[in-house]
Amino acid sequence: MKNYSIIVLLLLAFTSSKAQTKLPEFNDKPAYFNTSTNELIELEKSQYNTMAKAKGLFSAEGGFYLNGTKSSVKIANKNPLKFIVKVNPGTDPTSVFDLVKFEVRKDKRVLVTTKAKVTSTSTSYEKISYTLEKIKDGYYYLVAKNLAPGEYFFGSNDFMFAFSLE
Question: Where are the alpha helices (DSSP H) in the chain?
Answer without folding.
Answer: 2-19
